[in-house]
Here is the input.
Amino acid sequence: MSRHWRGGNALLRMAGPSALRAGARANDVGMMLRAMTLARNAAQRGEVPVGAVVYHGRTVVTEHANDRELTGDPTGHAELVAMRDAGRARRAWRLSDCSLAVTLEPCAMCAGAIVNARIGRVFFGAHDPKAGACGSLWSIPADGRLNHRPPIVAGILAKTCGRQLTSFFARRRQERTASRDASTKPSPRISRNTTVA
Here is the structure.
């Protein structure tokens, strides 16, 4: 599936200055927008809204969103599943000529998979201060002891990607509070003095 991104300058402005300095192109921003759509759809299914696209040039190889709730698979992170599917689609585990766009900074598991899949370039949206392994807590893909160190471009559409996540978790907290409140309401009592005919 190939798509030429029109309005490249507008897409580049959306990316943010740090992403531009790090080498993001209009196509990379377009792929991030695609990943954000996947994330939005995941949120509607009750999944944490993270989307990922593996692509070669302007061609999407695979795309996926988080599916841990649906599948019960603890490894069901968007980027991991997208890379797994890309390897199958191409019948090769090396994805060195592919790029990855993902809406949230990869965790340690996914960063390890990025190194092992030899992904050519990684673009992510929001930083993950609690589990990020591409600069926030760890820098696994940049570790000089590893045999593959892909360039990482952080912060493409970071605010928008971050808002998707914070809105999802705020909504989830509200739902849990409402559910908890509903379960703690006292049930109506029947008076002992009531006679039944």
About this structure: The two ends are 73 Å apart (CA to CA).
